[in-house]
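<discrete_fold_record>
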Amino acid sequence: MTGRFISTYSIVLSLPMRIYQLPERGGSVHAAAATSLPAGGFTALSAVSKLGVYTATASPLGTGPNSYMVRQLLHEAGVKVLLPELVGDIGVAIQLVEANGSMTSIVTTGVESEPSREALDALEIHEGDLVHVSGSDLANPASAEILTGWAENLPEGVTLVVSVSPAVAQVPVSVWPRLLGRADVVSMNIREAATLSDILASYEHGTGVRGVMRPDAVFVRRLGVMGCELQLHADEPRISIPAYESTTVDTAGVGDTHIATMCAALLLGHDFVEAARMANAAAAITISHESALPVPSWEQIREVIKNGRV
């Protein structure tokens, strides 16, 4: 293993509710509420750590009870906390999970929305480390500026992985060329890719996602039941990596698990194609049960790859 996985992806507390369908505006539906769970960056962090990689969070936690619980769970998952705690608490995400597995979220913000450039600059980032920045933390203009300014100045030899996130349309458009221009790997799903392409085209006519990335950066597009595709260089064709057979129960955290598994595999020395294949297997496992937790193990991932299905 050549380096560590360090993520600025913020951690919130989630309250998943299973519903038959979303209510009409002004209406109501009955829901089954599950036990509160840590979400956001927690899924990716615990997934990487479970796969045997040194894992650390560089997202703020607070002094409140939700932060205390998350800090204990991070410790149990083997994840290091790099930043000092802030007065306050982390936000809460209400997750509405429909019968077909699709999820809609409502998120309140807390101390995780207050990253400090000074605290980030004080971190010791080494050559060979992999830093993960999530687009979900860029919707706040102040946070976007802090995280982007820090990430675009990471030393050479540090791999920057950017995941676009469903909040893509809320991110200040000027952030994307700066962040993607430094990124070594960019991952997004079909919807996020289409939305970001439209945003960039309106910002500068004729500009697409690939146009603001470095030619040698890797583009990953997650295709759901069709797996994912890779473009290892701007001048190379895209490589299709098929999905594994599974049953969709809950889509929460599937994208985070895919990204986390790919990053862990890369840090453990696998090439991008093999890492994407492992990520597809992990995503198939995650989508087959309620909640993104527990995260997949190497044994489970290898079993899916061997059998072609969950």
